Please model this.
Amino acid sequence: MMNGKRIVLGVTGGIAAYKSPDLVRRLVEQGAEVQVVMTAGARQFVTPMTFQAVSGRPVRSDLWDSAAEAAMGHIELARWADLILIAPATADFMAHLAHGLADDLLATVCLASAAPVAVAPAMNRQMWANEATQANVALLRSRGVHVLGPDSGSQACGETGEGRMVEPLALAAAAMALFPVQGPLSGKRVLLTAGPTRECIDPVRFITNRSSGKMGYAVAQAARELGAEVVLVSGPVNLCTPPGIRRVDVETAAQMHAAVQAEVATADIFIATAAVADYRPANPAGLKIKKVSDSLEVHMERTVDILLAVAQRSPRPFVVGFAAETNDVEMHARAKLERKNLDLIAANEVGDCKVFDQDDNALVLLWRDGGRLELGAGSKALLARRLMAFIVGRYQAQR
Ligand code: CTP
Model:
């Protein structure tokens, strides 16, 4: 529940604005107070009266409305907000936000507020895919703006693709998840790696692996549910970011290492679930390799072991590794635990259609001095919660 949480709901001029009154109702149902701010474009789609009726507050939309400004100025409004949610967020509005423009009330409130900002993009699929839009979204993400969606499916323009606004019920849930959760990890930072990496052979080819990222994303979500501030450094995966989590996208092992280095100093717990390439082509070709010979040799060199590098820091976070093995699972996992000097390792058996891209898994936890616990088999979501509960216990006992 969002009891008493104050949300400025920015509505911008897209056809999905017809769903925003429903979103207001869902947020109010969750106990939030909602102040709607409409752009001029939004008023072409829905009337302010509709929003006033569902939110119980007069709608704001004009920076130059002296009566409204006298009641609650735009700076007060910016301070009032616990969260600014823009739904729908048009390509144009995100461009404004990315470039710091303040040419209407909503853009000004966003710029003047210290509250977290979330956008729910909604637009034609081509507009969403446009490089300019994608660059703006990446910029917003890098500044900590939460990007909720978009979904894909049939669009009001008659096309089908990515660009639909997330449905109001799911959006309200995602917005709720952005507020700090009270739990045993409140005030703690958990840093995770997840997914595969890609190592370039030439500009069009790369070496990767079968990791889907599902286990890592489930662990990230479980950590968040326990109240942690979660940063997820992710290789290329086909998964939505769990609500309330900051995701840093990377491709190569070197980029993953750099992203971890940038975040690890303030992390309390580090969990390496990523399937990082152990080797990468030593001299990736600058141009596409042509098939001019009967065979081809690609010379490979070692990548940095990110987990080992974190474990060697001093001071260091509580360090958890994963071991994916095809045989002698526990023996190999225990050797890794010792060699990398980990606090805990989660071992699973892979291969023969096991684990990779599956929704289920089976984990055994090992720690030093012969510690061992079977988490059993189950969905990755269930195992992730059990794993996080166990990590919390060990982490607290160690301090
Ligand atoms: N890992 C990492 N950086 C790497 C390689 C691995 O952070 N460059 C992490 C993984 O995220 C995982 C753990 O190390 O948590 C296990 O990795 P793995 O490659 O299986 O370990 P190795 O010690 O390389 O073992 P092997 O002998 O199987 O290659």
About this structure: Residues 193, 253, 272, 274, 276, 278, 303-307, 321-323, 336 surround cytidine-5'-triphosphate (CB under 6 Å). The CA atoms of residues 23 and 170 lie 9 Å apart.
